[in-house]
Design brief:
There is one protein chain. By secondary structure, the protein is mainly β. It folds into two domains: about 100 residues, RimM (Elongation Factor Tu (Ef-tu), domain 3, Beta Barrel); about 60 residues, PRC-barrel domain (SH3 type barrels). The chain is about 10% helix and about 40% strand. A six-stranded antiparallel barrel has the order 1-2-5-4-3-6. The protein has a six-stranded mixed sheet with strand order 10-9-8-7-12-11, with no helix packed on it. β11 and β12 form a beta hairpin. The radius of gyration is 18 Å and the shape is elongated.
Amino acid sequence: MPPDLQSDNVLPESTGSAVASDIVVLGKIVGPYGLHGAVRVHPFADDPKAWARLQYWWIGREGSPARFWQKTRVIKCNIQGDTLIANLECLPDRNASEAVHGVLVGVPRAELPPASQGEYYWADLIGLDVFNTRDELLGQILGLIDTPANAVLRVGDGLKPEQLLPFVAAVVVDVDLAARKVCVDWESDW
């Protein structure tokens, strides 16, 4: 039976393990693998080897509050090409693994190592104001898109069409998490 990602007994508030803003999404379940409940996970993080060794993951649907995320033990996790193959305690068979297609995988921030100099968790970038080198506000980071070449920032202000900016050194001049600001070499009319 697949996990019930909508019941109130999933990650109860009283555990203190995570709050909605505390869960960092690391990847997405993209389908079943084999007959025994394993799933294929597309990693969003740069170092899937590190989080593949975590004892527990939380799984949940995009936009769900933390109480709807389910903590589950990672039985086994291996890297296969660009994908992780994971056996999770909450997925005992192929039917269960088919039912969680599209579900996100995350962990509470406290369980992640601190980001290295010049590296950022995507969750830390969402909502930051984006200014260009002329100090013009382009909008806020609405999300990121993972492409084979590089990550792409989705920037918008709700008035103009959303802009897509490559998250590369040639475009991103500075990221100041404390000031909640990103400076980019990008014109407002591009």
